[in-house]
Design a protein that fits this description.
0% helix; mainly beta; globular
Length: 107
């Protein structure tokens, strides 16, 4: 990560990161979670960890460049899709997720 999560003053935050991903990934997601005391908590690293969160903001509205090269970019996170609580000064667990396309056959 390059920089902290920054409050944009409009109910969104931004985080600037350096990342790399391959072209076959077409679904991307960014989120930030905090526990009530805003300190690091390993519980936020697991599947379904939003249940342990006092705040969870996210966005699927990201435009990652996935071409196998390193990039730096700033991503917007908020509750405009789904989320709860207020991110506050302290530490947050920042998560980036990418999924490759899956072919589904329906009989």
């Amino acid at each position: 990560m390059i920089g902290p999560v920054r409050d944009n003053g409009d109910g969104t935050t931004s985080v600037t990161v350096r990342y790399i991903c391959e072209p076959e990934f077409d679904h991307r997601w960014v989120s930030a979670k905090q526990v009530a005391d805003r300190h690091p908590d390993p519980a936020l690293q697991g599947e379904g960890s939003s249940a342990a969160s006092a705040a969870w903001w996210q966005s699927h509205r990201q435009d990652f460049t996935c071409d196998g090269a390193w990039h730096s970019d700033t991503f917007l996170i908020g509750t405009f899709e789904y989320g709860f609580g207020a991110l506050e000064r302290g530490q947050a667990w920042i998560q980036f997720c990418r999924m490759s396309p899956v072919a589904i056959r329906v009989a």
